Amino acid sequence: MSTLGQDLHMQTFTRATLVKGRPTTLKCVEIEGQTYSISGGAVRVLRLEEEWYEDVRDPGAVLEAVGRDRIDVDLFTFWQRPPHNEPQFRFHTEWEELAVLPVLSYDDWWNNRIQSRTRSLIRKSAKLGVEVRLTEWTDAFVRGMTDIFNETPVRQGRPFWHYGKNFETVKSQFSRYLFREHLIGAYFEGELIGFMMIADAGQYALVGQILSKVAHREKATNNALIARAVELCAEKGWSHFVYLQWGTGSFAEFKRRCGFDKMIVPRYYVPISLRGKAALRLGLHRGFREAIPPAIKERLKDIRSRWYSADE
C-alpha cells in the first residue's frame, strides 16, 4: 500500500486499502515500529492495521505514545490472535468468535474432523471432473477471478463487493498481498470455477478469499477447495487454519461441517477520552451497527436477503 499524504501536526499518514471491496484511505500512525489505523466517525478507534498478522508488542507503550504525542483518538483496541485465547491483560475485555481448525494432519482431518456427508461431497467433486491444485498468479488466473466476480451481483443475500470490477482492477487490488499468499484453483474442463487465497499469518494460515461459480454449485467446489487448503496447511506445518469470524446461519454451518470449531479470543478496549468512556459504557464502541440487538439484526438480515433474492 502506498503513502498518499502526511499530516505532521497529527503525526499521521494515509494509506490506500480496501474496505468492503472498495478503495479507500486509512489514517495511520507509526508507534513502536508498528502501523496503527485510526477509524473515523463519531468514535475514533486506534487499532493495529495488520491485526490478523501481527500482535501488539507492548500495549503500555502504545498508550504512552498516544498521550505523549497527543494522538486524537477515543479508544484503543487490540486482541490476542489464535490460538492464544487466555486473557493476558486487565483491560475491558470482550470476545471475538472465530472459526478455527486445529491441523494435526490431513488424514486426521479427513477421518476424525469431518463427517461422511462432507467426505462424500469432496469425492463427488472429484468424480464430476473438478481438479483442485495450487496455482500461480497469472493473467489467465486473474481473468478467471474476474469472471467469477462478475457472475452475479448478489451473494449470500447481499450485494457482492467485487461485482462489476474489470480485469485491471482485480489485478491491481488483489496482487498487493501476494508476498504472503498461496493460491488454490478449482478447474473444470480448463475453466476456473473457484479459487482460494490462503495467507501465511505466522502462527496460523488465514482464509483471504474463497469463491466459486454459482453455475457449478452442484460440484461442491468450496468443499474441494477447503480439502486442498487443509492439505496445504499440513504440508507447511501450520498448526491452525483460521476462517475469519464464525458467523451465523448456513455460513457457520458450512464451516462446522468442514471441521472448524468456534474459538473465542479476547479483544480489549481501552478508553482514551471522555467520548471513548461514554461509548464503552453505552455499548457503542463497536459501532452503531454492532449495538443493534442480535434478534433485530437477524431479522434485518433476513429482510435484506429476501429483498435481493426477489431481484435474482
Structure notes:
It is a single chain. By secondary structure, the chain is of the alpha+beta class. It has 2 domains: 3-95 and 266-292, no CATH class; 100-262, Gcn5-related N-acetyltransferase (GNAT) (Aminopeptidase), CATH 3.40.630. The chain contains 9 helices and 15 strands. The strands form 2 sheets. The protein has a 13-stranded mixed beta sheet with strand order 1-2-3-4-5-6-15-7-14-13-12-11-8, with helices on both faces. Strands 9-10 form a two-stranded antiparallel ribbon. The longest helix is centred in the C-terminal third of the chain and has 18 residues, at 294-311. Mean pLDDT is 89; it is low at 1-10.
List its salient traits.
single chain, 312 residues, alpha+beta, Aminopeptidase, 2 domains, 13-stranded mixed β-sheet, 9 helices, 15 strands, 32% strand, disordered N terminus
CATH superfamily of the largest domain: Gcn5-related N-acetyltransferase (GNAT)
pLDDT averaged residue by residue: 89
- Main β-sheet: number of strands, strand sense, barrel status? 13 strands, mixed
Task: Give the fraction of residues assigned to helices.
Answer: 25-40%
Give the distance, in angstroms, between the N- and C-terminal Cα atoms.
36 Å
**Shape designation:** globular
Roughly what fraction of the amino acids lie in strands?
Answer: 25-35%
* Architecture per CATH nomenclature, i.e. the level-2 architecture of the largest domain: 3-Layer(aba) Sandwich
CATH fold category name of the largest domain: Aminopeptidase
Under CATH at level 1, the class of the largest domain stands as Alpha Beta
Query: What's the SSE pattern?
Result: EEEEEHEEHHEHEEHEEEHEHEHH
Low-confidence segments: 1-10
SSE class: alpha+beta
Domains, number: 2
The side-by-side strand order for the widest beta sheet comes to: 1-2-3-4-5-6-15-7-14-13-12-11-8
Count of β-strands: 15
